[in-house]
Design a protein that fits this description.
83 residues, mainly alpha
């Protein structure tokens, strides 16, 4: 499951055969940086959302419910920059 998620989220990287180690590092950082930022932000938001519900003592909503609500908010653009 994790492999499928990573394959969907991470871009493919083409590295010229004659690239130097520095060039390879720069290409990898440039290609993976935005995707890794998005993944870390998403997991952080999910963890924080679950922790806040747990810490508040709510028992009327399951973890699945919290994550589904979060997914709907993300789809609606609630967490887009500038909003």
């Amino acid at each position: 499951m994790a492999t499928l998620l990573l394959n969907e989220m991470l871009p493919s990287i083409r590295v010229p055969a004659d690239a130097s180690p520095q060039q390879v590092a720069a290409l990898v950082a440039e290609a993976l940086g935005p995707a890794l930022h998005t993944m870390v932000s998403g997991f952080s938001l999910a963890f924080t959302s679950l922790a806040m519900v747990h810490d508040s003592g709510r028992t009327d909503i399951s973890s699945i419910g919290v994550l589904q609500q979060l997914a709907l908010e993300i789809e609606a653009g609630t967490y887009d920059e500038g909003q």
